[in-house]
Write a structure and sequence with these properties.
This protein has 16 helices and 13 strands. With 365 residues, the protein is α/β, with parallel strands linked by helices.
Length: 365
């Protein structure tokens, strides 16, 4: 067995950005010659249909990180990979317990993509403690942590009380050849066919975190001064309340929520403006994708990631979280004076899958 054998372990719990980024990374690392075992919890995701050559998918019987330790320990004892990359916190802590149980020396690197302090800010004190205490205890044994942004790195060091030299910042593998190709597909939506008014786009789960309520209210202010339309892609628990808000504001002819879309990149490329309205992020992939496709953007200055990608506003306005008036002003400004597409694309150069894979392999081995 090669001493350079690599294992990637994560939970495929849905259609989310983490799963997509993990597979972009796995594909790019395999293309650079790394033999990879992909250990998957909940391995029924559509993301796993077309894995590249050199990637061996192992579907774990366990369905949750809390029950996977014996199975994971048996794998480590038998296969003894040189390194294991784990995406997400709970699988990461399970991997550390499994390594202790197996008695092997596999190097464990955990990828973290969330600003935990911001995510827990409005939770009860006992919930905050319940999330932070395992980090402080569990991460003492981790070999290294990869954070998706400098903000996530600093937050993790503070929350988990670990030295900053145990953490590297590696940008997400957002830009791939398949993404750029998919973006060229036509969008079959009436507002892109008639070209009568500029189309503003938002995308993400319809949840409190994404704060599409602020975007819709800001859009209502924009419509007082500038003709435009708003499309929000995605599904989630806030659909009914957002639809009620659209009706309450008299925007039913100007706002559309068409649900989850298989190819959001084509919508991003076709849009006149992309807006990220989130309350918090780790590194916002949708914002990176929009910029990589040359679409002008507006973003909240949420923790963390947008300020790094947009270089403190150089590549798009940053507005305070939840500020309807400032978001409306930024949207109007960008509609009237958009940056050119080539300038925007230059901001996303660090976020290619090839660059990310190279940095990960250097960190893992």
């Amino acid at each position: 067995m090669s001493e350079k054998k690599l294992t990637v372990f994560t939970s495929f719990s849905g259609q989310g950005g983490v799963e997509r980024m993990v597979l972009n990374l796995v594909e790019a690392m395999a293309a650079q010659g790394a033999p990879i075992d992909l250990l998957a919890l909940k391995a029924d995701s559509d993301h796993l249909r077309d894995l590249p050559e050199g990637v061996n998918l192992i579907r774990l019987k366990a369905r949750h990180s809390s029950t996977v330790v014996p199975e994971l320990a048996a794998y480590l004892r038998q296969q003894r990979p040189a390194a294991m990359l784990v995406a997400k916190d709970r699988p990461g802590r399970a991997a550390l317990r499994a390594r202790r149980k197996a008695g092997v020396k596999t190097r464990i690197v955990i990828r973290l993509g969330t600003n935990l302090s911001a995510a827990l800010e409005h939770k009860p004190a006992w919930r905050r403690w319940l999330r932070r205490w395992p980090l402080k205890r569990g991460y003492r044994d981790v070999d290294h942590i990869v954070a998706v942004s400098q903000g996530v790195a600093e937050d993790t060091a503070r929350v988990a009380e670990i030295p900053v030299d145990k953490i590297s910042v590696i940008r997400n593998p957002v830009i791939t050849a398949s993404m750029l190709q998919a973006a060229r597909e036509p969008v079959e939506h009436r507002w892109f066919r008639d070209h009568g008014q500029p189309v503003i786009l938002g995308a993400g789960r319809l949840t409190v975190q994404k704060d599409f309520e602020t975007l819709i209210r800001a859009f209502a202010r924009v419509r007082e001064k500038h003709s435009a339309r708003l499309i929000v892609l995605g599904e989630g628990g806030q659909r009914a309340s957002l639809e009620n808000l659209v009706e309450e504001l008299g925007l039913t002819d100007a706002v559309d929520l068409p649900g989850f879309q298989r190819n959001p990149h084509a919508w991003m490329r076709a849009a006149d403006l992309f807006v990220l309205s989130s309350r918090w992020e780790g590194s916002p992939n949708v914002l990176t994708e929009a910029i990589a496709l040359g679409t002008p953007v507006v973003s909240t200055d949420c923790p963390s990631g947008p300020v790094e990608l947009l270089q403190e506003g150089k590549f798009g306005p940053l507005v305070p979280v939840g500020d309807v008036e400032e978001m409306a002003r930024a949207i109007l400004l960008t509609l009237r004076h958009p940056l050119d597409s080539e300038t925007l694309k230059s901001a996303a150069r660090e976020y290619t899958a090839e660059n990310s894979a190279r940095r990960y392999l250097e960190t893992l081995f």
